[in-house]
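F.,

This is the one I mentioned.
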C-alpha cells in the first residue's frame, strides 16, 4: 500500500504547480502584457520628513508601486506628471514649511494617481501605467500641531522620478 504513494508525485507538489500556474496567468492578465515580462517595481517609503525611493528611473508601462508608511503619522501619496524638468514645482515653492503645494496649477491629465490616506505602518501595493516623462511624487497633508500648521510638502516630503521608454 505504501509503495503506491512513492510512485506518485506528492500531492503537495501538484498544488504548488497549480498555484504557480494560476499566479502566472493572473499576473499576465493583470498587466495586459503579452510579452509576459514582469512589470517594473518602485518602492516608496514615507517617513518624517521625506519620501525615499529605491530608484530614480523606471521603464514606462504597467508599474507596481509599493507604498510603505514607516512613520507614526498619516501621509498621502500624490503622483503628478511634470511638463518638463524646468517646470518642476520643487524649485518654485521650496522650503516654506507652512505652505502646501498648489495642486490647482496642474491639469487633470497631469495627475497620475493619488492615495489620500496612508495610515502609520501601512504597506500598500498600487498599480499604475506610466508614460515616459518627468514625475513629481509628494505628500500634501496639512497638519495642525501645537506649533501651528505644518505642510508635509514644505517639510520635504517630495521626490522626482524619471520614466523612460
Ligand atoms: Cu505626509
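My design for it:
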Amino acid at each position: 500500500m505504501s509503495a503506491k504513494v512513492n510512485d506518485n508525485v506528492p500531492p503537495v507538489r501538484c498544488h504548488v504547480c497549480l498555484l504557480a500556474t494560476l499566479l502566472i496567468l493572473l499576473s499576465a492578465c493583470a498587466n495586459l502584457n503579452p510579452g509576459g515580462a514582469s512589470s517594473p517595481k518602485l518602492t516608496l517609503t514615507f517617513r518624517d520628513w521625506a519620501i525615499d525611493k529605491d530608484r530614480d528611473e523606471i521603464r514606462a508601462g504597467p508599474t507596481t508601486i509599493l507604498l510603505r508608511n514607516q512613520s507614526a503619522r498619516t501621509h498621502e501619496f500624490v503622483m503628478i506628471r511634470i511638463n518638463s524638468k524646468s517646470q518642476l514645482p520643487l524649485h518654485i515653492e521650496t522650503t516654506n514649511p507652512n505652505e502646501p503645494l498648489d495642486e490647482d496649477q496642474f491639469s487633470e491629465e497631469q495627475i497620475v494617481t493619488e492615495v489620500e490616506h496612508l495610515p502609520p505602518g501601512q504597506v500598500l501595493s498600487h498599480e499604475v501605467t506610466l508614460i515616459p516623462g518627468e514625475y513629481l511624487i509628494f505628500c500634501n497633508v496639512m497638519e495642525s500641531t501645537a506649533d501651528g500648521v505644518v505642510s508635509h510638502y514644505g517639510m520635504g516630503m517630495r521626490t522626482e522620478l524619471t520614466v523612460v521608454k
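Residues 11-31 form the longest helix (21 residues).

Talk soon.
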